[in-house]
TrEMBL record:
GO cellular component: Golgi apparatus
Matching Pfam families: His_Phos_2 (PF00328)
The family this protein is said to belong to: Belongs to the histidine acid phosphatase family.
Transmembrane helix is among the record's keywords: no
GO MF entries: phosphatase activity
Organism, as annotated: Albula glossodonta (roundjaw bonefish)
Protein name (record): 2-phosphoxylose phosphatase 1
Cited Gene3D superfamilies: Phosphoglycerate mutase-like
PANTHER family reported in the protein's UniProt record: 2-PHOSPHOXYLOSE PHOSPHATASE 1, ACID PHOSPHATASE-RELATED
């Protein structure tokens, strides 16, 4: 049943953006003439999911999490995707991932389960990336090998399934025997570099900032009191149930908000909570506590990204396309650490791409033998390297902290050395440190 509640136009616009998904910007991979794409690394947030929290004493939203190609939203590849996933046993899986379902299967969605909408979002993402990276730039050859593709996911079914959907859109009917899917135990994708006591201190301070901002919002407080009265529970219990998670699901799936004998939760209440979330994002940027947390949270992943680029540039046998399937708590600090202050909070199916490019070789004196221009190229291995960062298909490279002052008229892409210097040294300036280890174990004065 559709909702028929009027809300302020600007609030409705914000909510609609949250509901739309993230595949509408479709311009990755464009480049100046003669530049060669060497590798691509993509971080994604899982697609649309069922709520993680239930509003007390209300009926959970009725959503079918099985995949039905004839049901909207759908995709031309959905039926083939379902069929292909039934052969997943031929792939190689880290033990934690091996027991997870390859696609959603419950008629009544379980908490946090990926929906058909979520699968379709990433099939479309994969299709977009295939058009650019596979068809146009030939990043992976038709007979690609297992070492050329890297896939990593957290141990949640929604991230694994999202990654597989994108992968199928990228490489339809891919050979399972070539696929190795690796498990990342940390939502920060920090691997063996997760020990960082100061990072946890900054996170605790950031959480206290959030709490103080919410407590000071009298309209938000009255809204929670009204909502708690409607469902018949103490206000504290309703807050703990994180009602926005469930209400967003109702909105995105065009369902009426929950009702009880005392009345129904309303769009106006939903809008108040969303408005407070936007104010929190603005306050977070002004205070700077979250940035300090984000720099330490994102560094291990960014360091791995830079190291992988270096190995590709040096001509070593390395992944040409890497996919990391993650969560909002993974991508949000990554965006902040990159300095992308204008980037919106990562919605369902958001994607962040790191592209590595090489410029054309310089003209050689007559009679000299030109040096290699492929992946490697001898002494040229690290010369002429450039990076580009895309968020949901939009080129945001020159919004990043490491390239916002770059003269793009002299060089149309961002020099890799800028990115490398930022990851290895410059990003710690804010923390009054010179290395990740120092920043993690000595508090900035």
């Amino acid at each position: 049943m559709k909702m028929n509640v009027k809300v302020p136009a600007e609030t409705l616009e914000v909510v609609m953006k949250a509901a739309r998904g993230s595949w509408f910007n479709e311009r990755p991979g464009h480049s100046p003439a003669g530049y060669k794409l060497l590798s691509v690394q993509v971080m994604i947030r899982h697609g649309d999911r069922y709520p993680l929290y239930a509003i007390p004493k209300t009926k959970r939203p009725t959503i079918d999490c099985t995949l039905v190609p004839s049901r909207r939203p759908s995709h031309p590849q959905l039926a083939a995707f379902i069929s292909h996933m039934t052969h997943a046993g031929r792939g190689r899986w880290d033990s934690v991932l091996g027991s997870l379902p390859r696609f959603p299967t419950h008629h009544a969605c379980e908490m946090g389960e990926l929906t058909q909408t979520g699968i379709v979002q990433h099939l479309r993402n994969g299709e977009i990336l295939r058009t650019v990276y596979i068809k146009r730039h030939k990043l992976l050859p038709p007979d690609w090998s297992s070492w050329q593709l890297y896939v990593e996911s957290t141990g949640k079914s929604r991230t694994l399934q999202s990654g597989l959907a994108l992968l199928y859109g990228l490489l339809p009917e891919f050979d399972w025997t070539k696929l190795v899917v690796r498990h990342q135990w940390s939502t920060l994708f920090c691997g063996s570099s997760c020990d960082c006591p100061i990072r946890n201190q900054y996170l605790e301070e950031e959480q206290r900032r959030q709490y103080k901002l919410r407590v000071a919002d009298t309209l938000l407080d009255r809204t929670y009191v009204d909502m708690a009265r409607t469902v018949g529970v103490p206000t504290r219990q309703l807050r703990a149930a994180n009602p926005i998670d469930s209400l967003l699901c109702h909105f995105c799936h065009n369902l009426t908000f929950p009702c009880t004998p005392q009345g129904c939760l309303t769009m106006e209440q939903f809008a108040v909570i969303k408005r407070q979330q936007m104010e929190d994002e603005r306050d977070r940027q002004q205070r700077g506590l979250y940035l300090r947390y984000a720099l330490l949270a994102a560094h291990p992943f960014l360091n791995r990204t830079a190291a992988r680029m270096l190995r590709v540039a040096d001509g070593r046998q390395e992944e040409l396309f890497a996919l990391f399937s993650a969560h909002d708590v993974t991508m949000a600090p990554l965006l902040s650490a990159l300095g992308l202050t204008r980037a919106r909070f990562p919605r369902f199916a958001a994607r962040l791409a790191f592209e590595l490019w090489r410029s054309p070789p310089p003209p050689m004196p007559w009679g000299n033998k030109a040096m290699g221009w492929g992946r490697g190229g001898g002494e040229r291995g690290r010369d002429g390297l450039y990076v580009r960062i895309l968020y949901n298909g939009e080129d945001v490279t020159f919004q990043t902290a490491f390239c916002q002052n770059h003269d793009r008229h002299s060089e149309p892409l961002c020099p890799f050395r800028n990115f490398l210097s930022y990851v290895q040294r410059d990003m710690f300036n804010v923390l009054n440190a010179t290395s990740y280890h120092e920043a993690c174990h000595r508090r900035a004065v």
